[in-house]
Amino acid sequence: MVLEWGPTEQFVGTAEELGSQAGELRCAAQAAVEAIERAVGTQGVTFELLGVKAVRAFDATVVIVSLTSRQQARASRLVGSFITDDFSSRGAALAVLNATNRLLGNIFSRTEKGNGGDKP
């Protein structure tokens, strides 16, 4: 999984799981978590993937992830989802990004204000 910040900066996350549909979803979600942790670097935030599941609902597949986030002494539970037409690993990665979006937006916003608008 590769996340990009601007045209030149990339953050790579990798993971290995069992060769099953559930394993593929978990692997993609874990790789997304790793890439996010590399992107936030020294901001003091860590994430743990608790679970990932794909369910059929409303004539579509919904990939749901559950994470915990730790920032200093504070822990938060995050949930994200992504609606897709299949059980692809892309849906799991996007569900992780959905779960962490608001928290990361706040972190990057504080970082940019604190260093004159530079990247985190």
Structure notes:
With 120 residues, this protein is an alpha+beta fold. It has one domain (2-104): Double Stranded RNA Binding Domain. 38% of the residues lie in helices and 37% in strands. The protein has two helices and five strands. It has helices at residues 21-40, 89-114, and strands at residues 2-5, 9-12, 45-57, 60-71, 74-84. The strands form two sheets. Strands 3-4-5 form a three-stranded antiparallel β-sheet. Strands 1-2 form a two-stranded antiparallel ribbon. The longest helix has 26 residues, at 89-114. It starts with a strand and ends in a 6-residue tail after the last helix.
At a glance:
By secondary structure, this protein is of the alpha+beta class. Helix content is 38%, strand content 37%.
Keywords:
120 residues; 2 helices; Double Stranded RNA Binding Domain; alpha+beta
What order do the helices and strands follow?
Answer: EEHEEEH
Helix run count: 2
CATH topology: Double Stranded RNA Binding Domain
Task: Describe the global form.
Answer: globular
What is the strand arrangement across the widest sheet? 3-4-5
Biggest sheet overview: 3 strands, antiparallel
Rg to the nearest angstrom?
A: 15 Å
What's the total count of β strands? 5
Question: Which consecutive residue ranges, at least 5 long each, have pLDDT under 50?
Answer: none
CATH architecture: 2-Layer Sandwich
SS content category: alpha+beta
Number of domains: 1
| Fraction of residues in H or I helices | 25-40%
Strand-residue fraction? 35-45%
What do the pLDDT scores average to? 83
